[in-house]
Structure prediction request, 89 residues.
Amino acid sequence: MSEILDEMAVAHLRQSAESDRDRWRDFARTALECILWPCLGLACVGWAFHTTDVANGKAAFYAGIAIGNGGVIFSLLAAYRRGEQRGDW
Prediction:
């Protein structure tokens, strides 16, 4: 009987460690995405300031704002959805 309980405890600890590893890997992925999106947005805004066409400059500026802010929101919502599927919260 105690061997069965020991095997169950070991299996539970292994599954818990795998779950923690998956969660932290997802957190790292989300953090990198939250750094990437504002960088892309800043690149678009920077290009907007260096272009000579006013229409293209405005389009690039507003696209940079949308990419920078929308990308972070998208990444955080996707991370939440993945956590829900894994059963983290």
In short: Helices lie at 2-50, 54-86. The longest helix spans residues 2-50.
